[in-house]
Amino acid sequence: MPKDLTQLQLLIELEPVVASQLDRHLATAKEWHPHDYVPWDEGRNFAALGGVDWDPEQSRLSEVAKVAMITNLLTEDNLPSYHRTISEHFSRDGAWGTWVGRWTAEENRHAIAMRDYLVVTRGVDPVALEQDRMVHMTRGVHAPEYFHGMLHQVVYVTFQELATRISHRSTGRVCNDPIADHMLARIAADENLHMIFYRSLAAAAFDLAPDQAMESVTTIAKNFAMPGTGMPNWRRNGVLMVKHGIYDLRQHLDEVLNPVLRHWNVFGRTDFTERGERARQELADYLDKLGRDVVRFEEQRARILAREAAKAETRDPARV
């Protein structure tokens, strides 16, 4: 029976993959600048500089768009915590360290662009946004109890980067503003390249240590939570985003979990021992349950939206 590789052995064995994927990423990634995605001519001073402070009437964003933009931005804001986490699980040296630095620099652009857009267009209350940022970043993010080493982290960020890409694209569509849609599509393209990097790294880990990789995938899939968990108004905002399809269970199953698992050939591999087979069966059982949960969720959401539409028609028949 093959022995588990230590964290150090995994880091050493996977470094050539990190180096090749880093080269691929640098050759593929498109240079872009946050200031090119902000309508600066809409900007004006706030009261501290003789202007007018924010008023809800100034925003062109719907309630759903506001919530989604704030949630996505505050998630991006916690970059210092994410940097700490991946640098602790990876390495600050060699190709690993170069990737950690490059990934951090690219992710930082997302918060810069989104905040500049929201402040300049007065899309959300900048005071409330700053207060929530202070709370969220002070709390930070901490790896949950089930995180045990680099493989768990690589698997998690593979799913998370893809989920974030979907959330940004969905948010762009509900903003009803071509500038916001274009900006968030650009950010989503970054997230997709990051996902490809981590997905490729995890694929190499499957070939190197299949049982360990399989156990990591099962653990992360069953316990997955978005990194914004715990930010102010997280539960309320999350419910609204789920209800309006910014990111929901169906997307998580059909657009994140299943495509990535197919790429890794999780259910077609023949190199597992009994231990890996147990983890794979546990994952299969979980996906079956999740599929049933998705159907129930969609039926419940349809009923809720139908009731809300009926109430809206009763209040104002001309709107329907």
Description:
The structure is a single chain. This protein has one domain (7-312): Ribonucleotide Reductase, subunit A. The chain has helices spanning 7-28, 63-77, 79-89, 94-121, 126-139, 150-174, 178-208, 210-223, 234-243, 249-263, 274-315. By secondary structure, it is mostly helical. It is globular and about 65 Å long. It has eleven helices and no strands. Its cofactor is Fe(2+); Fe cation. Fe cation 1 binds at residues 76, 107, 110, 191. Homodimer.
Helix amount, in percent?
over 70%
Order of helices and strands: HHHHHHHHHHH
CATH class reads Mainly Alpha
CATH superfamily: Ribonucleotide Reductase, subunit A
Could you outline the blueprint of secondary structure elements for this entry?
Elements: H1 7-28, H2 63-77, H3 79-89, H4 94-121, H5 126-139, H6 150-174, H7 178-208, H8 210-223, H9 234-243, H10 249-263, H11 274-315
Give a concise summary:
The chain has one domain: Ribonucleotide Reductase, subunit A (Orthogonal Bundle), CATH 1.10.620.
Features:
single chain, 320 residues, mainly alpha, Ribonucleotide Reductase, subunit A, 11 helices, globular
